[in-house]
Amino acid sequence: AKEQGRNTYQFYTEGMQDREVLRLELDKDLSQALTNNEFVLYYQPQLDLDSSEIHSVEALIRWHHPRRGLLPPIEFIPLAEESGRITEIGRWVVMAACRQLAAWKGTPYEHLKIAVNLSGRELDDEKLVDNIREALDAENVSADRLEVELTEEIFIQNIEHNLNQLSRLRQLGVHLAIDDFGVGYSSLGYLRDFPVDLLKIDRSFITDVAERHDDAVITRAVINLAHNLGIQVVAEGVETEAQLTFLKNHRCNLVQGYLISRPIPAEELEKVLAEGILVPGA
Ligand code: C2E
Ligand code: CA
Ligand code: CA
Ligand code: CA
C-alpha cells in the first residue's frame, strides 16, 4: 500500500476489513478514555505582534492511548464526531481548560486566555452553553478568559440554530474566533450579521505568503477586511522569519506556529513563558 507521509501507521497498509476492525477497536477505547483520564490538553502560544507578548494560547487535545502512545486529534476526533462521543469529549476539553485557568490564578500566567476548538457537531448539543457556563462557574473563571474557535462549516448548515448558540455564548462573555478562515466556502454575510472577535487565517495561505503574490494579496485583503470590521486577525502555521516579517509589516495582530512554539503541555508552557524565550528576535 501507498505510504501516506504522516504517521498513519497500519491504517493504510492493511485491508479495508482490518481497517474497519481497527476503527471499531479505537471507538471502543474512546469510550474508556474519559473514565481512564487519558486525554490531555497541549497549549500553543499566540504571539501578540504589538506588545511582543503572549496573552493567549490555543488548547489542542491529545490522547495518551494505553497501547498506541500519544495520538494527535486527526486519529480520533473525526471518529468521535461520527459516533457522537465528541459531545462528552468537548465537555471534558472545556472543563480541563477552565481548571487550567483556575490553576493559573495568582501565578504569572493568570492573564492568559485559552482558546478551545469546537466542531460543528458540538454546537448541535442544546446543553453546550449551559455546560460551558457551569464549567466557568465551577472553577470561578471569568468568561472572557475563554475563547471558542469554530470553522465556517457552522454557517452552512443548521444556520439558525448555530447562530442562536453563538449569540448565547457571546452573551455569556466568551470570545468567538473563526478558525481556518478562507477555506470554508461560506458567504461573508455572517461577518455582517454576527459579531466575531477574531479571524484565524488558514495555514494554507500563510505557508508561501512571503513568496507567492496571490497568497500575499489574499492575506493582506483578509487583514484589511477584518480590521475594517473591527475584528482582530491571527495567522496560523507561522514557521519562518520571512512569514513573520510579512505579517508584522501588514499589521496582522497575532501569530501562532512552530516558529514561536509547538503545542506543549502546561508545565512546559509555564517554563518557556517564564524564561521568555518565545519571542523571535527578542
Ligand atoms: P486546528 O484547530 O486548525 O489546529 C491547528 C493545527 O495545526 C494543530 O494540529 C497544530 O498543532 C498545528 N500547527 C500549529 N502550528 C503549526 C505550524 O507552524 N506548522 C504546521 N504544519 N502545523 C502547525 P493538531 O494539534 O494536530 O490539531 C488538528 C486539528 O484537530 C485542529 O486543527 C482542530 O481542528 C482539531 N482539534 C484539536 N483539538 C481539538 C479539540 O479539543 N476539540 C475539537 N473538536 N477539535 C480539536
Ligand atoms: Ca483551532
Ligand atoms: Ca486552524
Ligand atoms: Ca483545521
What report would you give on this structure?
By secondary structure, the protein is of the alpha/beta class. 41% of the residues lie in helices and 19% in strands. The chain is built from eleven helices and nine strands. The protein has helices spanning 16-33, 77-83, 86-103, 120-123, 128-138, 159-172, 189-193, 203-206, 213-228, 241-249, 266-275; strands spanning 39-48, 53-65, 69-71, 113-117, 146-151, 175-181, 198-201, 232-235, 254-255. It has an eight-stranded mixed beta barrel, surrounded by four helices. Strand 5, helix 6 (159-172) and strand 6 (175-181) form a beta-alpha-beta unit. The chain starts with 15 loop residues before the first helix and ends in a 7-residue tail after the last helix. The mean pLDDT is 92. Ligand C2E binds next to strand 2, helix 3 and strand 6.
**Strand percentage:** 15-25%
| Helix and strand sequence | HEEEHHEHHEHEHEHHEHEH
Characterize the main sheet: 8 strands, mixed, barrel
What would the average pLDDT be, to the nearest integer?
A: 92
Instruction: Report how far the terminal alpha carbons are from each other.
Output: 47 Å
Structural class of the helices, strands and pairings?
Answer: alpha/beta
Number of helical stretches of at least 4 residues: 11
Q: Helix proportion of residues, in percent?
A: 40-55%
Determine Rg (CA atoms, Å). 19 Å
> Can you list the strand order of the major beta sheet?
1-2-4-5-6-7-8-9
**What's the overall geometry?**
globular
DSSP strand tally: 9
Low confidence ranges: none
Which small-molecule species are bound to the chains here?
ligand C2E, calcium ion
Organism: Marinobacter salinus
Protein name: cyclic-guanylate-specific phosphodiesterase
Subcellular location: Membrane
Domain EAL: 23-277
